[in-house]
Amino acid sequence: MTDSKKMYINGEWIEAESGETQEVINPATGESVGSVSFGDSRDAAKAIAAADAAFKSWAQATARERSKYLNNLYELVRTHRDELAGIICAEMGKPLREAKGEVLGAADNFMWYAEEAKRVYGETVPSTIPNKRIMVTKHPVGVVAAITPWNFPVNMVARKIAPALAAGCTVVLKPAEGTPLSAIRLFELIEQAGFPKGVVNLVIGNPESIGKEFTDNKKVRKIAFTGSTRVGKLLMEGAAKTVKRVSLELGGHAPFIVFDDADLDAAVTGLFESKFFNSGQMCICTNRLYVHESVVEEFTNKLVERLTKAKVGDGRNMDTEIGPLVNENGLNKVLDHIDDARERGGNIVYGGNRLTDGEYSKGFYCEPTVITDVTPDMKIYTEETFGPVVPILTFKEEAEVVELANDTDYGLAAYVYTQNNSRCFRMSEALEYGIVGINDGSPTQTQAPFGGFKESGIGREGGRYALEEFLEIKFVSFGL
Length: 480
Ligand code: NAP
Prior knowledge:
The protein has helices at about 40-60, 65-80, 80-90, 95-115, 155-165, 180-195, 205-215, 230-240, 265-275, 295-310, 330-345, 380, 400-405, 420-430, 465-470, and strands spanning about 5-10, 10-15, 20-25, 30-35, 125, 130-140, 145, 170-175, 200, 220-225, 245-250, 255-260, 285-290, 345-350, 355, 365, 370, 390-395, 415, 435-440, 455-460, 470-480. By secondary structure, it is an alpha/beta fold. The chain folds into two domains: about 5-250 and about 455-480, Aldehyde Dehydrogenase, Chain A, domain 1; about 255-445, Aldehyde Dehydrogenase, Chain A, domain 2, CATH 3.40.309. NADP nicotinamide-adenine-dinucleotide phosphate binds near residues 149, 178, 283 and 452.
């Protein structure tokens, strides 16, 4: 076995205080692809102290100065695109061609916020009192503790640390324990980009222990989290003790609505992107498909035809469209949703099983699956499936489908396919979701706000909106 990779704290690569390490498993083969230091609250406290010590000078650096490091990182991430993509593929199974796109998306964030760092504008506001002047200025919130999930292990890190650093905050990052290798490689590039020591720190390890240090430590002024709604609630509760700011990018349960006037081929393409990208392991993944009853048969046939051509396999093959699930637990959850739907009267019209023969024998593969006759009592109707399964329901009226689509505690992403312009506007306004794709199955871009309504989260990533998440507003009153 090779040496374990370390954590990056105060500009040094160090082992966990506990001396513990953990293996990283490739879900396509079940084999180890490396080992990493596995830390706890003690390492988190050290990293927070380093970030706190570095904060003052980083916050006082000019925007142009901070921008220089972010631009260096942008260039380095682009240059190492294939290497980073290979690591993502090996540690969580994402098909290489998707992983390359993810790395470019991450680089784009570093470039975007290198620019946006220069636009932290304040303002003056007319006073109603003649001898007073009102000035509003913006300031970095302080040390940011960031926690990221495994499903976009490089881009989720970039989406947090790029705006935080641009705003003048220092950062301690905890990536998911299943995908630390890509984060470690990214931090090697961060080191190469020349960021001053302590400005960006990496801790890997026990989530409860590190998470508690993040929420309890007074030096941390902001928690930036992407992950499940369950953990988001825990962190929000913990952060309340010292009234830290939080931004939470949480779970979703996206409806995908196909009207009778939709271009059905475009809708199938959009659904494929929204449902099968990353093997269905995305927060904005379609989880309920509502098809107008007059076109449901035609649509289902077209979808099944598309799925018969979809290549499932090891992500290292460039023709793979759908990779394995991230681990055995992830696979079991998906199979449980399929079984539950079957038992409650669902009709499996395509797929429905684990793949185990030949090239699939060691990995965590599930067939792309289509289920009809879906009813609201099924798990798949209310819980995040996080896998390549499409449950199809039907509807008759626009008002009816709006009500069905909004009937959930989640509010992250929704999709609508229709060629009626007025309906496009009506639907975009009626859906209680932070992101609405109208005739668009993959509505994410660096410069657009990304985040959820209701229990899907608080705050936004992306564009100028993310920068605001890392800034405090100060009002200065001048008496003349
Ligand atoms: P998760 O279990 O909530 O884990 C996310 C992160 O939180 C991981 O780093 C995890 O560490 C850490 N964590 C777990 N328990 C913790 C605790 N008690 N205190 C502090 N940190 C803790 O979610 P996941 O299963 O990895 O990711 C999938 C979820 O993320 C889905 O619900 C998905 O919808 C959501 N997601 C949302 C967005 C968005 O932008 N809205 C984007 C992507 C994913 P370990 O890995 O060590 O457990």
